[in-house]
Amino acid sequence: MRIALDAMGGDHAPAAMVEGAVRAANEWSDVEFHLLGMEERIRPLLDGQAPANLRLHPVSEVIGTGEEPVRAIRRKKDSSIVVGCQLVKEKKVDAFISAGNTGALMAAGLLVTGRMSGIDRPALAPVFPTMDGRGMLVLDVGANPEARPEHLQQYALMGSIYAEKVLGMRQPRVGLLNIGTEEGKGTALTKKAFEMIQHLPVHFVGNVEARDALYGVCDVLVCDGFSGNILLKNTEGVAKAILERLKAEFTRTLWTKLAAAVLRPGLKSFASVMDYKEHGGAPLLGLSGPVIKAHGSSDARAVFHAVRQARLFIEREVISHIHEDLERVERG
Question: What backbone phi and psi angles, to 5 degrees, belong to 226?
């Protein structure tokens, strides 16, 4: 098994990416790791102590966070993102992980790695933390702001397979994001998508409202990229605001500080359940090979978990299972 990592992408690159790669290489000696980055910046961090299964793959360019995605991948052919997606396309690695420019990674995944046959649009699918601790796979959250009903149908199928094979959810419950739970609610898009998803070999639980999503009413939530991106950013913003307010309240007086000391174990447990770092990254489902987007602020632990996620993606042959189910749906 061969996994490539973008050493140059993310808020804490290259140090966090290198540290995470070294941890992963020490943990999984059966995996060959390719660290894509500028040699003059990566070599000193390895300090001659790189595990035998970790190789530096030099690149000469980096795509920054503010660059226009399509223009960047066309101009910077030797960037870590483009090279990583090209290695997946050429089957020289089995998966690629990057915490870099999200738009550039999605563009490179589509234009360089390419779509798998039978899938019209790939979907970016992160795991949202839920109150029951199980987590919920949401797709799409921004790869395609506009979608057609057949795209949402494909998302439902891909999401169900990924949740089962990688996240370990038995018979995952698939829901459709909507403004009401009743059948017949929503736009023309969601009404038609509801009808089409019903005929898939998945456990479809119907429409799901945004206010219920984090309470574990489904394991896979399907939506167009525009709605999904709003849901993602609103959820992140609300969680951040709550944590900041709690911190302010618990440090306001001596009594609240004492209360915080008592509640600390519970608060730490809650923070752990809601921590994105435990889930690793968001796969771009629908590409011809595994490409995973790690969170931009990933630390070494998040990188390590992204590698664990990539290993399961490869080992459990997610793409082959999607192919098989697509063919079964097409045959009726």
Answer: -70, -50
